[in-house]
């Protein structure tokens, strides 16, 4: 009985920790999907920038080459972002749900570590898009119009950088301060001895608490069955066959009081 209680307690702790890691995995997956969707849209714009834009023959070759370079940087950055998101989401979720014991922890931590690489690829694509727009403005527009467009683009880039830094500082936290369940999922800390130390009680007290919880569950089950089928039904008798007499009497008293 005591061994079964300890095993049940250990399994409950592991299940709760695994569920928490599953929520972290779903959070990373949804964030990556949002970034990947935006990158896919911008990749389509980058293809149009390369294919649809034509320049006259008298355009400076260095300027047109610079434009195509930034357009390709935009395209490659977005493609790299989309590919990374697809690989991380597919392989990470597959490992977490279909992998061996402890794979949920490995999958969630691995997806968390890949976020900087994905965000940097997306940032590179945005920078390439902005620079290509600047060069295109000076190649296709009059000087006054190009200067105005340049000011607008630079203001937009500066505002984006400022907002990004502000949001990063607002939601920044240290990894050492984050909630982790790595130690909970390890074999050493999910044992009953570690849990007893965390509760600050001795093992005898914990065993008594577990016994009370088990008896209460049995009483509630018998009461529910008796209310449904009657106290003298065969179902209740079979359920009460392996329970102590005090539990059966307690359930009878509760049932009589409820009626």
UniProtKB/TrEMBL annotation:
Pfam families, alphabetized = Orai-1 (PF07856)
Family per UniProt?
Belongs to the Orai family.
| Main subcellular location | membrane
Question: Transmembrane residues, as ranges?
Answer: 65-97, 118-139, 145-165
InterPro entries given in the database record: CRAC_channel, Orai_sf
Would you tell me the Gene Ontology cellular component terms? membrane
List locations, semicolon-separated.
Membrane
Keyword entries, A-Z: Membrane, Transmembrane, Transmembrane helix
* Membrane-topology descriptor: Multi-pass membrane protein
Protein name as it appears in the record: Uncharacterized protein
């Amino acid at each position: 009985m005591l061994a079964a209680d300890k095993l049940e307690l250990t399994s409950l702790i592991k299940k709760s920790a695994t569920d928490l890691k599953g929520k972290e995995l779903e959070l990373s997956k949804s964030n990556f999907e949002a970034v990947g969707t935006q990158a896919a849209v911008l990749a389509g714009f980058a293809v149009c920038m390369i294919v649809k834009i034509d320049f006259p023959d008298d355009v400076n070759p260095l300027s047109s080459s610079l434009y195509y370079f930034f357009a390709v940087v935009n395209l490659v950055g977005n493609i790299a972002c989309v590919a990374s998101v697809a690989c991380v989401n597919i392989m990470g979720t597959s490992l977490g749900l279909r992998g061996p014991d402890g794979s949920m922890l490995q999958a969630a931590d691995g997806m968390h570590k890949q976020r900087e690489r994905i965000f940097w690829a997306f940032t590179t694509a945005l920078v390439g898009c902005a620079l290509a727009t600047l060069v295109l403005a000076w190649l296709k527009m009059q000087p006054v119009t190009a200067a105005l467009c340049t000011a607008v683009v630079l203001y937009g880039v500066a505002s984006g950088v400022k907002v990004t830094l502000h949001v990063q500082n607002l939601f920044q936290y240290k990894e050492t301060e984050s909630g982790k369940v790595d130690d909970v999922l390890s074999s050493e800390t999910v044992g009953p001895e570690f849990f007893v130390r965390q509760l600050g009680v001795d093992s005898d007290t914990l065993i008594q608490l577990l016994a009370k919880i088990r008896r209460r569950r049995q009483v509630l089950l018998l009461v529910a069955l008796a209310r449904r089928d009657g106290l003298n039904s065969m179902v209740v008798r079979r359920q009460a066959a392996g329970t102590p007499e005090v539990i059966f009497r307690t359930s009878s008293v509760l049932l009589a009081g409820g009626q």
